[in-house]
Design a protein that fits this description.
This protein has 272 residues and is mainly beta. The protein has two helices and 15 strands.
Length: 272
């Protein structure tokens, strides 16, 4: 019976998220168990990190692997953005838009991403995914071990008590949120800027009435799917170089009054 009790305690500890004791000071969460690695997030003093049990076995002494809920801002190479504007499965997500930047994770099938900006050869994305980071326990004086681990040890060594035990829910906590980053849109409104892709074409024709806008985006079959309003672009922009080419447009889409058409108010334009 005592063996069964110990086994049950260990199973309970495995099933429940291990919540570490509150931090005594503001603590950086690194991408790797190395203080020189980039900071993935910052946990405030008093917050209770959620332990990442899957990474405990490979975490060096003096470090604790923790789970962060996100969302996170990261960067992928433009070539890893597909025609439907989703990030390619298996693409690396980096902490900064430059060669040699730390890799945060790789895109998996169930990951949700939103494109939030363009940086030359890089595309900025917002990633909805849990990530594992590392905090340096040695740099946090008086820090205690994870609560769930201590509870499992205590329960396993406790004498058999025949009286009923009322299940206890471990405290719900919120992992530290990522350090503040620029947010170009919350994804909650169609009027917020986003990216569009298509062939940049002129709507002017000597044999047809003039359209509401002189420029449009066409799909792969050559059909127009949106007008583009370039009035916000600098007058020095050489529009002619984009005609007939596939482009990526960053801007806000809205309906054209009295029609079923949409128009994109362009904030930036570049060749694909």
């Amino acid at each position: 019976m005592k063996t069964n009790l110990r086994l049950a305690a260990l199973l309970l500890a495995t099933a429940l998220p291990a919540v570490a004791a509150p931090l005594n000071a503001t603590t950086a969460v690194h991408t790797q168990p190395d203080e020189s690695s980039p900071t993935l997030a910052v946990l405030n003093a008093g917050s209770e990190p959620v332990v990442a049990p899957g990474a405990l076995a490979t975490t060096p002494a003096g470090w604790l692997a923790v789970e962060l809920a996100g969302p996170f801002d990261g960067y992928v190479k433009n070539g890893d953005i597909m025609k439907n504007l989703d990030a390619r499965i298996g693409a690396s997500v980096y902490a900064a838009p430059k060669i040699g930047a730390a890799e945060l994770t790789k895109i998996e099938l169930a990951d949700k991403t939103d494109i939030t900006g363009l940086h030359g050869k890089w595309t900025q994305i917002r990633l909805q995914k849990k990530l594992t980071g590392y905090i340096h326990i040695g740099g946090t004086p008086g820090y205690l071990p994870p609560i769930a681990t201590a509870a499992a040890t205590s329960a396993a060594s406790a004498p058999l008590d025949p009286s009923p035990v009322t299940p206890v829910a471990y405290g719900v906590t919120t992992a530290g949120r990522p350090a503040p980053m620029v947010n170009l849109g919350d994804g909650g409104s169609s009027t917020l800027p986003r990216l569009f892709q298509g062939k940049f074409v002129s709507t002017r024709s000597a044999f047809k009435p003039r359209r509401p806008y002189d420029w449009a985006l066409a799909d792969d079959s050559g059909d127009r799917y949106a007008y583009v309003d370039i009035s916000k672009l600098l007058l020095t922009e050489q529009i002619d170089k984009y005609i007939g080419h596939v482009v990526v447009v960053y801007g806000s889409g809205k309906s054209v009054p009295g029609t079923k058409d949409i128009v994109i108010e362009v904030e930036s334009l570049q060749l694909r």
